[in-house]
Amino acid sequence: MDDLRTAPTVGIVGCVLYLLALAVPYLLVETTSAVGAYYASGALSPVIPAVFALVAIIVFAAGREGRTDPSVAAGAAIVLGLFIVGLTLLWAMTVPVSLVLGLTESTLIEHHRWAVVAVALLVPLGAAWFARALRLF
């Protein structure tokens, strides 16, 4: 297995899964305004980490394909991944439970914010694996 190609690919997949996980409430909740309130109710909206995830996809791909220095790409991806996890965790911890329980009858939404945090962990893990494959640490 070629870690120099697999590790950034894991990071890219993690970013895509993160973005897909943010889209799940639109499938579970009947009204999109309720989803907007769900995402706006925390300390900050997870739209900011979503933008970081989009940038991280480009960084991972550029490092994997050699369009930028792979060590710079790995370092930038670690920083972006940590920001994604940190900001998502901040949002997940500050969303009022009463709002989450009132969104829909589905119990899946109760665990959504923690699932998003778990998926976000794939980004810095892929970046750290990429940095390790490059022997940066």
Describe this protein's structure.
- The protein has seven helices and no strands.
- With 137 residues, it is an all-alpha fold.
- The chain is elongated and about 50 Å long.
- The mean pLDDT is 94.
| Helix content percent band | over 70%
Question: Which residues sit in consecutive blocks of at least 5 with pLDDT less than 50?
Answer: none
Shape: elongated
Mean pLDDT reading = 94
Question: What can be said about the biggest beta sheet?
Answer: none
The count of β-strands is 0
Total DSSP helices: 7
SSE succession = HHHHHHH
Radius of gyration: 16 Å
User: How far is the first residue's CA from the last residue's CA?
Assistant: 20 Å
Specify the structural class. Answer: mainly alpha
Q: What proportion of the residues form beta strands (DSSP E)?
A: under 5%
Structure characteristics:
137 residues; mainly alpha; 7 helices
Brief overview, please?
The chain has 137 residues and is mostly helical. The chain is 80% helix and 0% strand.
What is the element layout, followed by pairings?
Layout: H1 3-28, H2 32-40, H3 47-65, H4 70-94, H5 97-101, H6 108-120, H7 122-133
Helix pairs in contact: 1-3, 1-6, 1-7, 3-4, 4-6, 4-7
